Each structure stands twice: as structure tokens, then as C-alpha cells.
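Same chain as my last thread, 237 residues:
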Amino acid sequence: MSRATQLAEIQNRITAACHKAGRPGSAVKLLAVSKTFPLSDILEFYSCGQTAFGENYLQEALDKITQLADHPNAQTMNANLEWHFIGPIQSNKTKPIAENFSWVHSVDRLKIAQRLSDQRPENLPPLNVLVQINTSGEDSKSGLSPALAIDLCHQIHGMKNMALRGLMTIPSNTDNTDQLKSEFLECKSVFDSLNSNGLSLDTLSMGMSADLELAIECGSSCVRVGSALFGARDYSK
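reply #2:
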């Protein structure tokens, strides 16, 4: 299957889910999760019109960004590409994240937010930030409880060089639709509460390859799709 066909299939799934939920197809953004895949795959999807790519592993992402600098059309592509960092953030990694990414989906500590703000170059637009909520309650997952996430959002709001855009969550790894829906709706409830209390948030990052339709039903405005676009990952490399 061609990259264009794979991309069209995901976009059709998003459009159909939006229609079913009574939402315009333009209400949901596709983030192509390109972790473990080479720059060549990213360039194939870029040539089909996909511009937003998500990376979990910092060094791997920086290698791709460096490789892109040698591309003949690097200047145009850098102007169009959005690099999203979606993995856990260590405090010693904030500077390269602040310098090289347009979006960060996984902020869950005030210290991390402050470092990203302080280290964002003045010549770049504000860093778009999402606060990660741990709706599943699993210790193995990053993210904050809803109450702590609300506090962190208010602390980030107005930080220099930062644009607080919304929330992100990774639900339980389960086929239980009711449980997934409950977790998605919990995140949506926090999102709505923050907007009712003075914050103007526009991004709710929920849903992946297997559950994007349910996430869209629950209000997601950004779905993070990896395997359904790129194929199965080989973590042994």
C-alpha cells in the first residue's frame, strides 16, 4: 500500500468519526507518530501533505532534524514541518526540546515547564504546550492527576515563551471500550473546566491508531497515529 493511500485511509477514518460525532472534519488534526522510523519515511508522508510529526525519543528526533538540514528543500520544509515531542521529559533534555520542537505534549511538572520556558530561544515563536493527564491511574504512565493538572495549567498560563494549548492523555492499554471512554471523558471534563475558568485552550490530544474514533467521539482535537500509518515497529534495532 502506498503512503498516499495509507494517509488517505487514516484521514477518511478521522472524517467519518467527526461526521458521526456531529463535528466538522477539520476539527481534528492528525499527528503522525514517526518514532523508530527513518527520515525517509517522514519525507514520503510529507510529500503527500502530512506536516505534523510526533517523536518520543529525543536523540532519534534530533538526528532526523539534523539530517533534514542537508535536504535540498530544507528551508521550505522547516517552514512547513511541525515537530511534536510526545515522550517523557527529563530535566536535562529540556534545552534541545525547547530549541527544536514546535509542540510538547508531555509536560507534567512545573520544573520542566519553567525550564522549557527559560530555554526557548527568543527568535522562535512561543512553544506550544500540552499538560499530560494520567487518566488511567497507572504508575507506569507519566502524567498528573486531574486536580494537579489543573494547578499546573494555571501555573504555566502566561509563562514567557510558552503557549498553553491544552491537554494530552494516554489511556489504559485495554479493549474495554467503556473504560477507555471513561478515561477520555475525564480528560475532556478537565479541559472544559479549565476553559470555563479563564483559560483559552484549543487542543485535546487523545486517541491513537486503535481508538481514534472513540477519542474523537469524546472530544479529541488531535489524534496521534503511528502504526496505522508507518506499520509495525521493530524495537530491536
